[in-house]
């Protein structure tokens, strides 16, 4: 006796197949979109506040003690460091502000920092244009410490520097 398969089962199979194909294309597009997003943005941006140069002065008045992290979100060579630094920020609950240098003129930005936020003339030489990643420690609305090319260091060294400069609370 031959069993006959109802026609509606074929319709259900076709609908499931089409839904599966559409789901695969959606997942592929979603993957590509997130990959592009993370390649073009800094991982530090996930746990910090992004702002531009014009907003920095107001932020410094409202929040006088913070850490300014300056880098380019497009630089692939620092992504590994930035993932580690992102975890460090979360671990120590740091107040970090991020500025993406790929969208600004670094010479103008450095001049802006020197003229508006620098009281210690010894730090002026540390604010240079050949830095890829720089951390500025703001205390009372002014730059207290500058850590240039921080991406060349390991997280233990950064922890020691942040502790020495009292940028983290080790209570």
Would you write up a description of this structure?
- This protein is an alpha/beta fold.
- 47% of the residues lie in helices and 15% in strands.
- It has five helices and five strands; from the N terminus they run αβαβαβαββα.
- It has a five-stranded mixed beta sheet, with helices on one face.
- β4 and β5 form a beta hairpin.
- The longest helix has 34 residues.
- The mean pLDDT is 89.
Summarize the structure.
The protein has 171 residues and is α/β, with parallel strands linked by helices. The protein is 47% helix and 15% strand.
Which SSEs are present, and which pair or pack?
Layout: H1 7-40, E1 49-50, H2 53-62, E2 66-71, H3 79-92, E3 96-100, H4 106-117, E4 134-139, E5 142-148, H5 155-164
Parallel strand pairs: 1-3, 2-3
Antiparallel strand pairs: 2-4, 4-5
Number of helices: 5
As laid out across the biggest beta sheet, the strand order is 1-3-2-4-5
Roughly how many Å is the radius of gyration?
24 Å
Structural class: alpha/beta
Overall pLDDT level: 89
